[in-house]
Amino acid sequence: MTSIIQIKAGWLIDGTSAPAAENVILTIENGVIKSLDHAGPKESASILDYSGCTILPGLTDAHVHLVMSGTTDMAIRETQLFVAYEKSAPVIERHLKESLKSGVTSIRDGGDWGGHALRFVRENGDIPVMAKCAGKAWRADKRYGKLVGRPPKDGQTLAGAIAEDGQNPDFIKVVGSGLNSLIEFGKQTPPQFSREELSQAVQAAKKLGLEIMIHANGDEPVRIAVEAGCQSVEHGFFMGQDNLKRMADNGTVWVPTAVTMEGYAQSILDDDPKKAGALKNLDAQMELISQARELGVTMALGTDAGSTGVHHGRSLWREMALFMKAGFSLEEVICAAAKNGADLLGLNDQGTIAPCKAATLVMAKGSPQDLPASLQQPAAVMVRGKQVV
After folding, report:
1. Does domain 4-57+351-387 fall into CATH 2.30.40.10?
2. What is the pLDDT of residues 255-295, one digit of tens each?
3. Are 269 and 275 in contact (CB under 8 A)?
4. 3-state SS of the chain?
5. Is residue 206 packed enough to be buried (19+ CB in 10 Å), middle (13-18) or exposed (0-12)?
């Protein structure tokens, strides 16, 4: 039986970077967008009136950790990392629901030590959020990354580990550098893997039909990641303009996660020297985001939700606000959060509002001038024509 719904939108931002349109009628048939026009709705259709809202595509948070919350309680932060699946499962479910409430309809999980997020998604196929998961990430022995993954076995190469793993993830996560210092501004850490090791890992992943997302900060780790052919660079603090040019030339996607520094800075006392360090790191990242826009680097929005002070769902609009502060227009940042994010996850029928695309939509209260803050509590969220919020 054919189901037809029509929606009256006061404003519509389609996710392509085009300017917002006014007074648009969307016709949806069986969860798929059939047409966009300014004509009156058909009398036989079910009409939903969102004339006081701005409708935009469902958003993607391209970097989260579902097993972790954004709490600032250090005791909770320690215990949530290495718990059994049975304790993680309800936490993961809660974070997926929190994401939906902020218009985040798809997420990319960057891994956890037990592969719990991947298992949850595999065992719960009816969740409305489209979740792509790395499972357990890969890191070098005795290097940063224990909270998200493990090193290859003794005598095993990274490429060999990927080929023989068998956990069947949606993509491969590699930790390619260390963390950013909040005390020594711009301090860089050495790469965890060589260019040759990463290149072989990329080829091993491609044989499985998978891409690599890589945690990389600093000039050399990012350069190696881009030259090796990793699909996306996560974080990318202090990587320099030359790496931005490489990314633009190679089509590498950058997920800056600037909100991590804002979230951390807001969670600690003003007299803590790490607060000033986090804000200084944020300023440097904002400058790189501005340069990347000018150079034509493809960027997707990711929050690293689960980091200190970075909460699932609602942190995405904060990342959007930071992008706008760095020079993005509202339409450009929605394109990064919707189309670019969907493309990165391989969701070809999502990310824009157009005929033949899935009717996965966010109804944000008010006009475009109220965005992105109005995403804190959307009027409604629809996934494939079904209202889920």
Report:
1. yes
2. 999 999 999 999 988 889 999 999 999 999 999 999 999 99
3. yes
4. CCCEEEEEEEEECCCCCCCCEEEEEEEEECCEEEEEECCCCCCCCEEEEEEEEEEEECEEEEEECCCCCCCCCHHHHHHCCCCCHHHHHHHHHHHHHHHHHCCEEEEEECCCCCCHHHHHHHHCCCCCCEEEECCCEECCCCCCCCCCEECCCCCCCHHHHHHHCCCCCCCEEEECCCCCCCCCCCCCCCCCCCHHHHHHHHHHHHHCCCCEEEEECCHHHHHHHHHHCCCEEEECCCCCHHHHHHHHHHCCEEECCCHHHHHHHHHCCCCCHHHHHHHHHHHHHHHHHHHHHHHCCCECCCCCECECCCCCCCHHHHHHHHHHHCCCCHHHHHHHHHHHHHHHHCCCCCCCCCCCCECCEEEEECCHHHCCHHHHCCCEEEECCEECC
5. middle
Are the beta carbons of 9 and 53 closer than 8 angstroms? yes
Query: Is the per-residue pLDDT at 153 higher than 70?
Result: yes
State if pTM tops 0.90: yes
Residue 310 has pLDDT above 90, yes or no: yes
End-to-end CA, the chain: 24
Closest by CA position to 16, among listed 375, 296, 293, 340: 340
The pair of structure tokens assigned to 12 is: 């519509």
Distance CA 202, CA 190 (A): 20
Residue 53 burial by CB count (10 A; 0-12/13-18/19+): exposed, middle or buried? buried
Supply the pLDDT for residue 39: 64
What does R_g of the chain's alpha carbons equal in angstroms?
21
**The CATH fold of domain 59-345:** TIM Barrel (3.20.20)
CA distance 220 to 53: 46
Model confidence at 322: pLDDT above 60:
yes
Domain boundaries, the chain: 4-57+351-387, 59-345
